[in-house]
Amino acid sequence: MGRSIYERLSPILSYLYLILVCTAILLPLSITLYRAIVVSKPDGSITISLQSYTMISEAFWDKVLVNISISLLTVLIDVAVAVPVAYALVKYEFKAKRLIFTYLNGVWYVPGISYGLALVLSYYFVYKFLLGFWGFVVAYSTGFMLLALLTAIVAFRNLDPVYEEAARCLGAGRLKTFFKVTLPLVGPGITAGVVLILVLSLNEFITALLLSGPTRVKTAPLQVFSDIRHAGIQPFVAAEATVLQLVSLAIVILYLKFFGTKYLRGAIMI
Amino acid sequence: MTRVEAVELVKRYGSFVAVDKVTLRAREGELVTILGPSGCGKSTTLRMLAGLIPPDWGRIFFDERDVTSLPPDKRNIGFVFQRVALFPHMNVYKNVAFGLEMRKLPKRVIQEKVKEALRLVHMEGYEDRMPSQLSGGQAQRVEIARVLATDPEVLLFDEPLSNIDAKLKDELKYEIRRIQRETRKTMIYVTHDQAEAFAISDRVYVMNNGRIEQEGSPLEIYTNPRTPFIAAFIGTTNFIETSIKEYDEKGGIATLEAAGLEIRVRHPSILDKRKRYFISIRPEDIKVINPNDQKSYLNALKGTVEDTIFIGTTVRLNININGLVLKVDTYGAERFSFLDSKGKEIVIGFDSPTILNM
Among B25, B330, B23, which residue's Cα sits nearest to residue B186? Predict the structure, then answer.
């Protein structure tokens, strides 16, 4: 017996639906690239050119470097602080443990604008030290600490305690066990936090916008925004936007090359 | 060689008493097994001996040394876990060398000791393999090599074969016994498998509900279980609840009654006439006998074969005697003749059964 029309159409419709959804997601990103590299000539013909990239201002490249420096320092500070805190939170029992976990999860749901404003208010108006590049680093470190903490907590929770117990029984003290066994085993899990913080901090806009006033530091996304406001959506502005996309993409691809998808489950779908 | 002594160990989790005043000893070079069902507290006891969890009460001695409050890294023990605990980020060589590096031994000595430990477990040539490239049995051998390399005073094994398939398990348990004999190390071995415990142990402690119920050689525990739990847990047995019918003090024989049957037991002086008792008869201690041969046995009963079960080395018969069903094991070539004996009347004979307090 032949298959019914519904059975024959079903896979085709499913694929069409999938293609439609993927297009809706990828189209805005592709259009940015299209605007950057496709040039319309006066005679109506179009050509592909990388000329727009040569028109990117030096100020933008400076901002990209500043941005990368801020992000790298943020990651360093966050990992250095979050790893011991996460280890203690997972390994040791104390009275307020549940309360702390509830609080940490609660912070996650605070809107970006509220959190950015809170950072500006607390550091600039209360502590009075949010000035310049380092002020930005401190604010970003605080803002992304939760992400570092949560990924480190997940990494420590997923570690089977049998490895640490085995190390202790083989004669390793607490510190040696931590550095020789625990850290190498949770390392890849912690790097999931690192890559997320790198990508998110490179592209962070709301907090950067609020901080740029008091700190007088401008990041690359702010430069793109400023160029859009002053020059409109010109090919060189689209080129700047694609540079930011490529930097993030490069970080994710490098991460996936070294660690695969195991530790990013839930964060990416590959 | 080191003597291990645990005195009145107690471990509580809230109101639950996991280990209740456990006292056990392992003499120098002895292989002692803690045998018991899941959740009886045997692994908790072993983990206290290792220093992985602190006891709430009691003391632990290695020879004269009180190690109760020492962390695991200060006890010089070798612990083999139930789950494979090889470090996944190190190859076989680095795993085995780990404990030696912690002891800051020279590189050349480490190389020699790793080689020797791997030879002992027949894993030479696997130095460069990662744990993920080893089978379950190979990984467990490397794990044993890793603890042996450090020359520990005491070896502690926590159900190391429970995740290994039956055939390999059979092979490895004799390997463990061989290694223990070769190295003459004191070993405390935890298992829920009676056959495994009996095959390798010098002495066995049977644990139940956080307590030691009996201690003795495998033979003592099998032939003379002290409690109904042990009789049921160790091997297969026929349990019968009985009361005393006759008591011949002179002849040293008592007649017990159960379900209208009379079962005779020797040495009844321990019996209290007012009490009821369980008796335990192992299926292998009951024989199918010639009806003319009844007088050769202390007990001879007539019954009907209700069912036959082919187990391989034995054929088990379920014999119905006045409504009481007894399991009887038959062996040798004779066993095949019983395969189609369902419904037939036969006579069984057995000697004095084990008497247990209720």
Answer: B25
- CB contact under 8 Å between B50 and A169, yes or no, is yes
Position B167 confidence tier, pLDDT thresholds 50, 70, 90: confident
User: Which are the contacts of B270, defined by CB distance < 8 A and separation ≥ 6?
Assistant: B355
The DSSP string of B185-210 is -EEEEEES-HHHHHHH-SEEEEEETT
CATH class of this structure's domain A55-264: mainly alpha
Q: Which CATH class, in words, describes the domain spanning B4-232?
A: alpha beta
Q: Which of A171, A181, A184 sits opposite B73 (nearest CB)?
A: A171
Contact B68, B59 (CB under 8 A): yes
| pLDDT score at B309 | 94
Which of B286, B271, B277 is closest to B350 using CA atoms? Answer: B286
Q: Which residues of B touch A169 (CB under 8 A)?
A: 50, 52, 72-73, 77-79, 147
ipTM > 0.90 for the complex: no
Dihedral (Cα; B66, B71, B77, B79), 10-degree rounding: 130
pLDDT, tens digit (0-9, with 9 covering 90-100), for B240-255 = 888 888 877 777 888 8
CATH no. of B236-357: 2.40.50.100
pLDDT tens track for B263-303: 888 876 667 777 888 888 999 999 999 888 888 899 999 99
Listed by start position, the domains of chain B span 4-232, 236-357
Q: Report residue B72 as tokens.
A: 């695991």
Distance, in Å, from the CA atom of A108 to the CA atom of B190, rounded to the nearest integer, reads 46
Q: Which residue has the tokens 């605070």?
A: A110
Domain ranges of chain A: 5-49, 55-264
Beta bridge partners of B355: B279
pLDDT band at A262; cut points 50, 70, 90: low
Q: Is residue B89 less than 8 Å (CB to CB) from chain A?
A: yes
Residue A264 has pLDDT above 80, yes or no: no
